[in-house]
Structures are given as C-alpha cells and as structure tokens.
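Notebook, student rotation project (T.W.).
Task set for the rotation: take a protein with a known small-molecule partner, predict the structure of the complex, and write up what can be learned from the model alone. Partner molecule chosen: adenosine-5'-diphosphate. Sequence and SMILES entered below by T.W., checked by me.
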Amino acid sequence: MAEIFYHRPALAFRLSKLILQVAIGSAASSGVFLAAPRRTGKSTFAREDLRPALEDAGAIVLYADLWKDQTKDPGLVIVQAVREAVGRSEGFVTRLAKGAGMEKVTVGGLSFSLDRIGLGNDIDLTTALAALSDESKKIIVLIIDEAQHAITTDQGVAALFALKAARDELNSSKHHGLRIVCTGSNRDKLAMLRNSKDQAFFGASMVQFPTLDQDFINWFCANVDLPHSLDPSNVFELFKESGYRPELLGAAADEIRFDFALDPEMVPHRFALLVRAQAEEINADLRKVIHSLTPIQSAVIRVMSAKGESYAPFEAPTMNLYAKALAQAGIAESDIKVEVPGVQQALLALQEKKLVWKASRGVYAVDEQVIVELLRDAGLLEGLS
Ligand SMILES: Nc1ncnc2c1ncn2[C@@H]1O[C@H](COP(=O)(O)OP(=O)(O)O)[C@@H](O)[C@H]1O
Ligand SMILES: [Mg+2]
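Predicted structure of the complex:
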C-alpha cells in the first residue's frame, strides 16, 4: 500500500476552524469534545490529520494520550505533554527560569530542569503555558486523547483544574489563546468532564466525531491488494455491521493474504465471513459476561444503561427501577429487597468485570456503548428510564 492511512483533510480543516476561531457567543473556547466508539479511528485522525491541520493554521499542538500507557497517572501524562512542548525551545526555558526568579540560571537551560514544571511544583501549568504563548505568539492547542481517564485519579482531576486556570489566563487579551480538545470513546464518560458546574470544562461543545465513510472503504478496496478485488459497496455494508472498525477489515485481509490455498474467486465471500466472524466473536464474549451476572448486577447495569448520563445510583427513583428490573427478570416480588449495600456491591462487581466505569467522585457509566446496544437489542432496557 502506498499510504498506510486514509486521510480526511476536509474534516480536519473544518474541525481546526471550529477549534481555533471562536465565534462570538460560542462555547468552543471552553474546549471541544470529540466522541466516537473505541477503535473507529479517533487517535489516528488526531495524530495524522487534525494535528497537521492545526499546525498549518499556525497553532502549537500538544498531544497527551491518556490511554497509551495505563501505568502512568493521567495527570502526569498531561504535565509531560506540557514539559515536552516547553522543552523544545531554549527561549521558553530561559524565559521560564527568569520568571521563576532564577536570573542566575545558566543560559542554555542546562541547570533548569523541566521537572520543575508540574502540579504543585514551583512552575505551574499556567506559567509554563503562558511562557510558551508569549514566546511563540501562537495559539496553543492541547489534544487530550481518551480524556475521560483524567477523572479517574486525583492527579488527573487536579491537572484538569490546572488546565482550566491556564485556559482562562491564556484566553485573556494578554496572551495568544489556549484551546483544549478532548477525545473519548464514550459520550457519557466524556460528558462528565463538562456537565457539572464544578467540572473543568463546563459548557464545552460536544461533537459526534464522524466514523470513516464510503470513501475510506473505496480507498481500502483500491489498495488492499488481494488475489481478487472486493466490491466497495458490499465492503461498506460489512464495515457498518461490524461497528466501523478498520482493524476488522485489516485482519480479514491479512488472513486471506496468508491463505495460499484459497481460490481467488472465493476471496470476497471469504472476506465477508472473516469480518463477520470477528465482529460476532467480540459480541459473543460480551454476551457471555452479561449472562453470567447475578440478578442484582444485571438490574444495576440495565438501569444504568437505560438512564445514561442522568444515572444516579442510590436515589430513591433509581432504587425503584432496580426493583422493577428484578421483577421483569422474574424475581418474585416478595424476594426483592433492593438496598444500598447490595447496589454498592453490584457496582463493584460490574467494575471488576469491566462492564462499568467509575470516575473518581463516585460517578458511574457503562464502560462501552456496545454494552448498552446489546442490552437494548435484547429488549432489556424497556420501561427502565
Ligand atoms: N484513517 C485511517 N486509515 C487507515 N487505518 C485506520 C484509520 N483510522 C484508524 N485506522 C486503524 O484502525 C485502528 C483503530 O484506530 P484508532 O485511531 O486507534 O482508533 P480509536 O482512537 O478511535 O480507538 C488502528 O489500527 C488504525 O490503524
Ligand atoms: Mg484512541
């Protein structure tokens, strides 16, 4: 293949405009949130298309991937992205060192350690980003990939608040602007970063990030280089069925490439089988986990799925919904006693099974949208919202 990635320059251009040029009355300066399901191409787009588009438009782009190394605290990953950008130029470092009252510091930054930038360190994120802004005279865009992870740790939450302060300072007329772009695989989780007034990104715009389209499939079919060509409209149907995940197509193509005994005429048929088999396998695993839940665990995840963003685990109306879900599952009314400790235990078990996700302040969300869809398709969300 000539290019490994399919590019979406028009989308990148439109988004970069939305991010950089804040219209009067628009909330975009509070941040822009891009949501789309897992493995559908958000990170690839952010790195390969959006970042270059923002740079072409004259911005400095910082990129923090909170998903890549899960052993690192998300707060630290954000701080490191800032350190890295500041460290790229000696000018910034000198300015910073002076600002921190270290006139005697050797010019050349040798005795200035970037470790001094951080949360609770002597150079906070606002100071570091303001120096970067003043030195470059450019707008700064920080892309936080899988941003919802930031609210799972105290340092992550602290980093978000530090960024809010930095954003307010840099967006004042004294500096050249700071925009924060957050991506995430789950709308409900991402929404937690902006929904309540005490959250760092209150009022930020939520954009449903478009999935890869027929054009991508045309590109894929034109370049896939199999012993027999694939029909783009058939492949697009397969792509839709399997949740718009490019990897499933790639893996099916690989399997065919290594199957030397396969009759070329059979390639399209075999390709379809392989894509469907993988998609089915992923869902079958999930269904198995869901079927193994205890009645109360099942009731909790069903109600959570049905309520979405407005789910409040221990409120009286929610408790009634759990009871209703249990009754729907055929548990006799006399056996139903829904109490807070039982719900707490169920929530813990659901987290362990990776069906449910918990933010640091005890806010819950279903881990992945597919779980909600599986439950809905099975008719298990009816009457529960
Ligand atoms: N534009 C693209 N062209 C080719 N392959 C892509 C493209 N976007 C995503 N992919 C492939 O799909 C997979 C998932 O993409 P990724 O960007 O990691 O998704 P996400 O960040 O949404 O989870 C990767 O293996 C990537 O190579
Ligand atoms: Mg990603």
